[in-house]
Structure formats: structure tokens, C-alpha cells
Design a protein that fits this description.
With 94 residues, this protein is mainly α. It has one domain. The chain has a three-stranded antiparallel sheet. α1 crosses α2. The chain is globular, with a radius of gyration of 13 Å. The termini are far apart. The mean pLDDT is 95.
Length: 94
């Protein structure tokens, strides 16, 4: 039994787990693209998404948690989702 999750439903739920509105939209688009690229559905599990992805205000804030010197270095280590029209980004935790 499967349920289709809309962007609105995804956003409402993920905001409860600490993501910004813009961050939830970017993460939703990323996950939808990943489903298409892999030709496999992703189960909606907001707790797993919260554990797997972290949102940061900017690259400098991220550097407090990760030892990286550049965006290129970060992109070589993990998936990076840049949130449009902001300095914020979401990374897949590693």
C-alpha cells in the first residue's frame, strides 16, 4: 500500500523536523529527481530524512560541523543541495 506525497504535505511535515520552508522545497525536488534517476520510489520517512540530511544557514556554519575548506571539497564527499536565492544549503550527512 503506497500513498503519494505532495510537495505541500512533504513541506508541512518536514518543517516540523527543523527544515526551513525553502529547504523543504529544495529537498523535495532533490528526492523527486533522485526517484526519477534511479527509477525507484522513495518511502516517505521524515525521521529518516531528518537523520540523513542537515540544513545550514551558510557554508561557514557547516564548517563548524565538518572539516572542509571549499564547496568543491564538500561536493566530492557528499550530496549538496543549494537552496535557491539563499546562502543556505542541505547536505546528506556523512
Amino acid at each position: 500500500m503506497k500513498d503519494t506525497i505532495t510537495e505541500h504535505t512533504f513541506t508541512d511535515e518536514m518543517i516540523k523536523h527543523g527544515f526551513s520552508y525553502e529547504g523543504t522545497k529544495a529537498l523535495f525536488e532533490y528526492l523527486e529527481q533522485l526517484e526519477q534517476d534511479c527509477d525507484q520510489e522513495i518511502e516517505f520517512d521524515p525521521i529518516a530524512f531528518r537523520c540523513d540530511f542537515n540544513e545550514y544557514e551558510n557554508f561557514e556554519q557547516l564548517k563548524k560541523d565538518y572539516e572542509v575548506e571549499s564547496m568543491e571539497e564538500l561536493e566530492n564527499k557528499t550530496s549538496v543541495i543549494q537552496i535557491p536565492n539563499t546562502e543556505r544549503l542541505i547536505i546528506q550527512a556523512y
